[in-house]
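Hi V.,

You were right to ask for the full record rather than a summary. Here it is.
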Amino acid sequence: MKTRFEKTSLLALATMMAAGLPSQVMAQEAEAADDADSGIIVVTARNREENIQSVPLAITAFSEEDIARQSIQELDDVARFTPGFSFEDFSGGFAQPTIRGQATARVTALESNVSAFYDGIYIPRSWAVDLGTANLQRIEVVKGPQSARYGRNAFSGAINYLPKKAVLDGEISGEIEATVGIDERRDIGAFINFAVSDNFALAASYDYSTYDGSWENSHPFANADIPGPSTEGNVGGWENQSISVSAIAELSPGFTIEASYNYFDVQNEARASNYLAEQTGDGNCGNARSIFFAPATLPLICGELPAPGETTTNDPRGYGAQAETGIFRFNANLEITDSLTVDYTFGNVNGDVDIATSGEPDPINCGTLVGPPTFDALCNFQNAPIGDIDYDTHELRIVFDNGGPIRGAIGGFLSDGVDNFRFNSLSLPVITDANNIVTVPGTPVPVGGAFQPGPFGITLQDATTTTEVVSIFGEIQWTSGDGATRIGAEGRYSETEVTTDDNRRTLTLNDTFKVFTPRITVEHDLTDESLIFATAARGAKAGGFNATAIDPANRVFGPEFNWTYELGTKNTLADGRITLNASVFYTDWSDIQINSPDPDSPNPNAVNITLNLGDATVYGIELAGRFQATDNLSFDATFSHTEAEYSSGTVDARYARDPGVTSDPPCDDIVCNSNGDIGGNEVERQAPTQVSFGAQWDAPLGDAGDYFIRTDLTWQSDFFADSGNTGVIPSRFLVNGRAGVTVENVDVSIWVRNAFDKKYVSNAFVVLLPFGNTYGEFFGERRSFGVTTKVRF
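Predicted structure:
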């Protein structure tokens, strides 16, 4: 990959369960900065610092040390060690985090069922949620609906990145870190904190990472000199950098202000992938049918999707996320009295994105999607999303806590943002010579409002969306006289006004969605080390618009909702050497937003719109534990199993579509229902079972320092790629390892990811269209290893 600098299990689970104690989803236990020997993380999921074992929420948290020792570098890694959480990348454009089986049904949805935050500031688009792990002190994943506390679209849970920033203790401190690895992996980063006085501090960081990717590209022009963004050399590489500055000032006792700015420049190549198309005869089940008068083909894939080979074939003109994101945060905290605090936070998120991936089953010769017999073969690219965002948020929170039986908070939230979004389908000539390469999009030429650098460019969507959110929220908690029992209630009322201008049709749509999301929590301390709790919470995800719907009544689709009921326990035993946590939950999920042909169109193959067509039920169990077996040896493990099933009568009408050439729908009433009924099917794109197991040895290195050795094993079950439950993504078992030494202020570690070089399908999507179905499968990263050195001062 050419840089711009150059150009300018299971055993651990059995042990844990044999202990006979249940276990709630917990943080990966690690040393907190202020309690290095406790093995307990301090989290801020409830807007205040708390020991994670005392919080009646299902939280998984990763400290800075966890992130390093478990070789976590992206959300896919976070998902491997977080029970009940999965993540799909899709080359970055429509990244989809999933919590507790509630996968976003529409892969192309701009917002997912999981909210993401950076230092408490909401990240409004899915292409910006996977920010990496540079300069982080902690990552928190909170499971279950968080709409009452976090607000917008925290439907099934929330992710919060907590960066390192200015602190008042010390004078000058910081670190410099560098990594060298195979496939041209090179990282450099630095963080410095400078306490100007006892009341004022500044901090700054810079991180740069470049990587050629772990998959060899067999395309004959993989190493062509392509101007502009591309996927050059191997596949799956990147060149990313981030910058942060922050400041904190204590203006007077009890009055503190903070300000920070974080900038992310992401230049990702396309992910290693493979596309399977009905037209090429890749299907193996369903109704046989003729497409464009070619021999009859089977439209669907049943069973496991094909495993990757030794190499992948990607058109080098395609690329993953080319994005820039800036996040500004300002916070003022005033302690009016010992029991009354006022907190104000302002945030701004702005950025832009450009992604162009090839969906060709034959990226060398092309022509499957646009080509014979009518045209010369063309190579098709999906250039989406393209656009930019600019969102402001304001939150005022007043907290009352005098140490008595009643504690509470009230507040208000305002958000105002603009999103420009385009989706282009671009078709370019086949590459026959390194000198005839046409870039995507290169230097775009505006034609009728669309970006068309080659023939047959079509703008599928061009919209400007303005979103204004007004919320009021409150919470109250009662504590019994002995302090052992607490009952809490939270609630948020939100009015979200959405205005969308369809720039292709000069059509403006506007609506206001009003929702109330409560949460009730009851918790009781069985002992000082054992907590049980029960919660009932409602989640809500915003609705949106269908500009192409024939009936005006269908031009607006409503929010989707869930009610989740959870029972959990957290336990710290044997003087802190054992933690065992568990959670069981049940979710009633309603009004699921599903892609569907327009029911009012006389053409059964009408363009997809979104309707609230589905319901589902979800239930499951999540376990986690840690055992300090000796002073040197420790084990940790997690397990989750989720049953997510569509309710009777739920219809995915794409399976009932007229294929356009024959009268038969793709389903044959054997492998799937020809009327589109998916009732009783598993919710797609989420692994029901996940397991992780880690073992770590820590010991002194004579009088010179310390050393550690760690291995991590993760496994997840197979799962369905589609709501028809035909295509299956196979299970996977992965192994990471890391070993390191610390001598005074220097850390040196060697690491390996995917140690046995497992080649696997990580995720996939299915596009069902009248003129042919397409399956896009994406491959996980292959084996990589390297050396990392950190110097602290």
